[in-house]
């Protein structure tokens, strides 16, 4: 693969000081090429280009913005296989999963393309001879920072709402998985007016920080870890008042009552952990809370199913799970497996590095299940963002289940399995999470608000509110009575 370029002001270019970072294939250890390691000056250029493009883009019609997003969706769809290939090679996930991600990105580009006419305000009754109305206005330059786990899906779908609302965008993908975003930038160069979309790459500490701290970026949207989210809030506040939305991590509970169909619940626990992405998903249900009457049978069946999952190369049609994105993340996962054992939890299956079956050069961990986990322990409290599923000590009644489920600082998703209508509604009401499933896991229903409570974030995405969040309301009061 050739070395890559960033899209800044309609031009494809390297970092101004020539720095690059290696792009590595975590499944094979192969070097795929390099990505530009942007400097603060490159970020300045991108923001300046975006500011200057905003002068025109803010006056575009809803129809023009809709047409542009539709064209972008078409281009992404035409290059779906290529983009999925880049993601699978760059982040180690299974090709078929990354291919689905591209379809989701196309879906969201089209979804927001269809919503541009919804950007209306209100009229408010006031005195005779006056007219009071509100209008929605874009912020200007939006800084968009995204994580490594769904590279193209986030790069393409998370620019849709800000562009639809009339903002221009500077997006920074994760330094670990930038190839598909850079390719998206190349493709966009042919269809997007210069400066409306800019793609800068590099580390969080350098280009990420420069984007967050740029005084001309008043609206930041971040998807990533809670720790980085807090650092970004702090950093942004040093510069000026910025609107920051945060889509952060989770340590999400799955609660199983004894009236649930046990096999269905076990299958759901495996699905909900997103082993297909090595558990590297914010919404993964990584804490299972099971009633004591069915606990032992549940754990036994769960361990058997997870133990049968096969790690493999991205193109292996029989693989159930892929590689961990990089060596640091792999070490983090393995250290939590050691920690769980030190904390007295019982490792039922997996948790070791996989080196057999042609995987020795890659970063593979066998999917793990822990049981007898103390709900207050670090294994139960901290997001691992890897294939480690923790089953808590059994609960006796609904009160206790709810207490355990809510006993973390995070609150992104949660799920409850029961056939009892009262229990289902009670948990839907009282689970401290932004997205609750009942007898279901993992599904993001398009058009519904996704986002967290507590340390899992601020703001909602994938719905109409996300579009509105890229606008500010302006109120206008006209007195025409005395004319
Ligand atoms: P991360 O926080 O390490 O990095 C995310 C992005 O922020 C990257 O582009 C990185 O370069 C940049 N960054 C890092 N430090 C920065 C700084 N100081 N200033 C500016 N930018 C900085 O996250 P990650 O490891 O890439 O992704 C995993 C995390 O993302 C998990 O916690 C996961 O739960 C979360 N996530 C959340 C959602 C959601 O929708 N809530 C979705 C996916 C992932």
Automatic annotation (TrEMBL):
Cross-referenced PROSITE patterns: ALDEHYDE_DEHYDR_GLU
InterPro entries to which the protein is assigned, alphabetical: Ald_DH/histidinol_DH, Ald_DH_C, Ald_DH_CS_GLU, Ald_DH_N, Aldehyde_DH_dom
Pfam families: Aldedh
Domain Aldehyde dehydrogenase: start-end pairs: 19-476
SUPFAM superfamilies hit by this protein: ALDH-like (SSF53720)
Catalytic residues (UniProt): 247
Phosphoprotein listed as a keyword: no
This protein's UniProt keywords: Oxidoreductase
Record flagged with keyword Cell membrane: no
PANTHER family the record matches: ALDEHYDE DEHYDROGENASE-RELATED
Similarity section: Belongs to the aldehyde dehydrogenase family.
Official protein name in the record: Aldehyde dehydrogenase family protein
Originating species: Actinomycetospora flava
Lineage summary: Bacteria, Bacillati, Actinomycetota, Actinomycetes, Pseudonocardiales
